[in-house]
């Protein structure tokens, strides 16, 4: 399948890597202490994995101020501990076999992303990467995707590309940027509570090759 595309873009968390649940639970316990509100396991799962799409909209539905939440969340995340608690999915190794430019477009913040990439020794998997911010925009906005495409030199010359991710925001970003979309379902439809569409829908990247 890799020969079908001139370039690949990939999400990080939930797509190529995941974090041990114990780390997630501890972070949400500390964030809850900051905000004076407990988070159930289900709520932590929804927010960590973006199961309902926009995390900010989900927070607002729970009457939680998104800015206050993210300030507390980033204060409580320890980059080195997170990196140590992050593991690479076995099927992610397909990236090393791709013979075309590969870019990373992630909502994981740079201060967390870089230690994770270094710990897992996968920095050289990507020819360009972008950690989304308020300035770049957030998936499903196509802007961060197009920015990485420009960095790869495939932004405006008719190249055919694909973006793979685990969430509906990834699929939306791909389609909004004119790319094909691969949804890799890591958590299952029942736990997600909905079915995410994509040009390809798989449980493992191994199904594509």
TrEMBL record:
Molecular function GO terms recorded: phosphoglycolate phosphatase activity
Entries under Pfam families matching the protein: HAD_2
InterPro entries: HAD-like_hydrolase_sf (IPR050155), HAD-like_sf (IPR036412), HAD_2 (IPR041492), HAD_sf (IPR023214)
Annotated GO biological process: DNA repair
PANTHER family per the UniProt record, alphabetical: PHOSPHOGLYCOLATE PHOSPHATASE
UniProt-recorded name of the protein: Haloacid dehalogenase
